[in-house]
C-alpha cells in the first residue's frame, strides 16, 4: 500500500496529537479515515472531562474490556486507547491490518498501553469465538461500518456475539452511506440491542460535530 503518497490525518486527543496515514487509492475502504471515527473519540474525550454529561457512565474505562469492529487505519481505537482504554482489541480483515499496524507503530509512544490487533471477519464463527474468550466485552466500538446491505446481518451478529449478554454496550459512530444498508440495520439491530439512544448534537465536541455523523449508544437493557 502506498502510504508515502497518502495524506495524513491528525487528531489532537488527550494532550497529544495522533497521526494516521491513509491509502486513499486502496480498494479497501478501511485504509481511509472516516469522519465518525474522529467524532467518537472527541465525544468520549468531552465526556471524560465532564462526568455530568449524559452517557458518561458508558465511559468508565478502568476494568472495561472493549473491542472495536472495523478498526480500519485506527483513529477511533487508538484515540480511545490514548484516553485510557487499556484492555482493547482492534479488529479488521487481513487486507486492512497492515495499515492498522503501521499507525499503531506511528502512535505507540502516545498510548498508555498498546491495544491488541486481531483479524475478524464478521461472518466467521471461529474468529468471534476466539475473541469472546475468556469472556465477552463490556464495550463494543464501531464507526462508519454500515455501508453494505449484505453485510448488515453479519455485523449485528458480531456485535451480539461479542457484547456481554447482560451489560454489553455498543458505542456507534454512524453516517448514512447506503439507504438500503441504513434501513436494514435499524430494522434489525433492536433484536440484539433494544435500547437505542442517540447522543444529542450539543453533547458532541463542537469542532467535531459533523453534520452527517451521529453517535449512538446501544444497550441490552435500560440504565438502572
From TrEMBL:
Coiled coil: none
InterPro entries reported for this sequence: Methyltransf_16, SAM-dependent_MTases_sf
Gene Ontology MF: a single term: protein methyltransferase activity
UniProt xrefs under SUPFAM superfamilies: S-adenosyl-L-methionine-dependent methyltransferases
Pfam families named among the record's database cross-references: Methyltransf_16
Protein name, UniProt field: Methyltransferase type 12 domain-containing protein
Native organism: Setaria italica (Foxtail millet)
